[in-house]
Write a structure and sequence with these properties.
The protein has 69 residues and is mostly helical. It is built from three helices and two strands; from the N terminus they run βααβα. Strands 1-2 form a two-stranded parallel ribbon. Helix 1 crosses helix 2. It is flat.
Amino acid sequence: MRSDLFVFDTNVLLSALFNDSSTPAQALKKARARGVLVVSDEVAAEYVRVFSRSKFDKYLPLSYPVCFY
């Protein structure tokens, strides 16, 4: 059985995470319900670099568990 695969770039993912009613958030919810989210090693590293910026600490502390699988 084939699943639909979805990739979200860093800016869209940030928007989805910080605003639950945004269009990117709705797209992320639909993608998770319909298929599988996928990410390359390079994009995963970009996620970590961007989310590690101090300006995001108030939204997502560095102690927050992050899983990529």
